[in-house]
């Protein structure tokens, strides 16, 4: 028989997507869930009754011994403190395991993928010396790299040459005649 005509075949137009899951052999998880849910509610009701009812009513039910009423307040209070202490412990461990600000591990680690100066094998242009330039080719699909922090600083915080910077500052500071203003505009626009 051809399996492509079966309704569960992927080639059948009636195939369900996603495929139907196999039937569970046991309904035990449903019963366990119901028992856990109902017992939780029953225990909570007993806790509330124990905390609220007067002693005479509890004794009239035939219960001769039960914990002191102070535990009705202490258990929730201890639980809240335990939860807050857990949050504080995780915060303290994270703070303890954090490197110092002047540590090199805040910038790079052993898993950093810094390119070498060797050209890549699969480039569509002639291989260059700088791997960043070969990855910038229009048809290149570069590998993911971590850019060294020195290169990032050079790009972000590069300063103008001292002579040009001096001219620009002196032009801004001077309220000179029109010919000097024109020279300042030329310097600021980048023309020489």
UniProtKB/TrEMBL annotation:
GO cellular component, one term: membrane
Coiled-coil segments: none
Compositional bias segments (type: Polar residues): 1-11
Topology within the bilayer: Multi-pass membrane protein
Membrane-spanning parts: 31-53, 73-96
Record domain PIG-P: where: 30-157
Stored InterPro entries: GPI_Anchor_Biosynth, PIG-P
Keywords: Membrane, Transmembrane, Transmembrane helix
Protein name listed in UniProt: PIG-P domain-containing protein
Organism: Sanghuangporus baumii
């Amino acid at each position: 028989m051809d399996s492509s005509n079966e309704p569960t075949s992927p080639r059948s137009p009636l195939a369900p997507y996603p495929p139907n899951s196999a039937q569970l052999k046991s309904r035990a998880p449903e019963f366990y869930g119901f028992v856990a849910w109902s017992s939780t509610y029953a225990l909570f009701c007993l806790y509330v009754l124990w905390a609220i009812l007067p002693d005479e009513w509890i004794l009239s039910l035939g219960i001769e011994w039960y914990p002191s009423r102070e535990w009705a307040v202490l258990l929730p209070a201890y639980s809240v403190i335990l939860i807050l202490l857990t949050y504080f412990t995780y915060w303290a461990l994270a703070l303890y395991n954090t490197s110092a600000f002047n540590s090199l591990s805040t910038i790079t680690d052993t898993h950093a993928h810094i390119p070498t100066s060797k050209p890549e094998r699969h480039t569509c242009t002639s291989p260059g010396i700088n791997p960043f330039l070969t990855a910038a080719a229009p048809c290149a699909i570069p590998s993911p790299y971590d850019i060294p922090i020195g290169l990032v600083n050079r790009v972000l915080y590069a300063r103008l040459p001292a002579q040009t910077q001096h001219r620009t500052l002196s032009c801004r500071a001077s309220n000179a005649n029109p010919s000097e203003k024109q020279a300042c505009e030329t310097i600021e626009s980048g023309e020489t």
